[in-house]
Input
Amino acid sequence: MSGPRREVDPVELEAAVRAGHEQDAVGNRLLYLAGVLFVVLAILSVVVVAILRPLMIASQEKRNPPASPLAASYGRTEPPAPRLQVDPALDIYEHRNAERQVLTTYGWVDRRAGVVRIPIERAMDLLAERGIAPPPAAAPPAADAQRGGAP
Output
């Protein structure tokens, strides 16, 4: 079952029935006390942090030596010229646009040999229509050809 059974006082039961409801199991006083305790603990924790923070900072400053005074004058500097990549974001943008141009347009690869490029979408359509040619048959090894093909 759900726990030890409590004996019901018939007088309390009669009063609850007349009132139309049962009494609250938790008193309001306990809820108010828990709320006040929560607020007090929150304020206390803020005060403790405000007191301990400067002490912890001071102990860290004692353990770690200060930075070199030269560090402020040197700082972060750009490398000397020639800088090969001045704007990396613009470089990758232009590179991707050039690739997209090659992959989505028609054009000559080698005009003398008659080699052209076509867009990828068109190439996939042609491949779906015509299929892929089987790979060429492998030529017999040179050693077998000299022996006449016998093992």
